[in-house]
Structures are given as C-alpha cells and as structure tokens.
Amino acid sequence: MAIKEKKKKASRVVKGQELEVEHLREIADVTPKQARALLRKHGADWTKLKDEAEDLKKE
After folding, report:
1. CA-to-CA dists, residue 36 to 4, 6, 31, 55, 56, angstroms
2. What gap in Å lies between CA 47 and CA 33, rounded to an integer?
3. Contact 27, 52 (CB under 8 A)
4. pLDDT digits (tens, 9 = 90+) for 2-56
5. pTM of the complete model
6. What's the pLDDT at 49?
7. Are 39 and 17 spatial neighbours (Cβ–Cβ below 8 Å)?
C-alpha cells in the first residue's frame, strides 16, 4: 500500500492573498507594498483596511 502525501494548498493561499492585494490597490490607490502591510496588520477587516489606506494617501 502506497502512502499518499497530502498536497499543501499553499498556492491557493498565496493566490488569494495576491487577489486581496490587487483589490485593495484598486479601491484604495496604494502601492502593493502598502497593501500587503495593511493586510498583514488588519487581516480581512475591509472597513479598517479602507480607513488606513485613506490615511496613507493623505500623507
């Protein structure tokens, strides 16, 4: 009997994160680096993400 290794779904996670980065960039007009930092800091709290992105644009 062969043991099948479970495939990691890391590519899906990364792909999803990049989609969120792109979406945040489009709606908030921030750089990819800023978008990634905001997503790491606030996760999926889009209200907070938008507010923080607006503050970044004012600087």
Report:
1. 35, 29, 9, 15, 13
2. 19
3. no
4. 665 554 444 333 667 889 999 999 999 999 999 999 999 988 898 999 999 989 8
5. 0.68
6. 92
7. yes
Residue with tokens 């990634």: 36
- With b meaning 16 or more CB within 10 Å and e meaning fewer, what string describes 22-45? eebbeebebeeebbbebbeebeee
- Look up residue 55 and give its amino acid: D
CA distance 52 to 46: 10
Residue showing tokens 């792909």: 15
